[in-house]
Write a structure and sequence with these properties.
Layout (H helix, E strand, L loop, with lengths): L9 H30 L6 H5 L3 H16 L23 E2 L7 E2 L1 H8 L10 H8 L2
Antiparallel strand pairs: 1-2
């Protein structure tokens, strides 16, 4: 007999109703707690807001962002670099007549050999100048 054609049992429907009741009660309690918390007024010191040095606040915020993002320049761009399963470690090269061979490894070696953002040719010095 297929599952949808099986007779429904009263035990299963009773468990379903109990679960829905517990869920609804929990949602009501959480909603009531959030509403009570949002209804409480928060006193603000208005005299302290007028004496804020916005230049110092902006400088502090930018310094904080710089120091937070600074270590990211030393992270490896490719976590699979220098492993046997690196899908990016492939290159295409060609040589025409007796000219020097030319390939894509010149561009992709920074990523496939485990380089970081600071090691990239153009972006590296730029990121070192902008971030501490």
């Amino acid at each position: 007999m297929a599952r949808h054609a099986a007779p429904s049992t009263s035990r299963r429907s009773a468990l379903l109703k109990a679960g829905l009741t517990v869920t609804a009660a929990g949602a009501a309690l959480v909603g009531a707690g959030a509403g009570a918390q949002a209804a409480a007024p928060v006193p603000l010191p208005l005299d302290g807001l007028t004496r804020t040095d916005t230049g110092a606040a902006g400088t502090g915020a930018l310094d904080g962002v710089g120091y937070a993002l600074g270590p990211l320049t030393q992270l490896k761009l490719n976590p699979l670099a220098d492993t046997g399963v690196d899908p990016l470690d492939n290159g295409v090269g060609t040589q025409v007549a007796d000219f020097k061979p030319l390939g894509t490894n010149l561009v992709t070696d920074h990523v496939t050999k485990g380089g970081a953002v600071a090691d990239l040719p153009v972006v590296g010095p730029l990121s070192q100048g902008l971030l501490p």
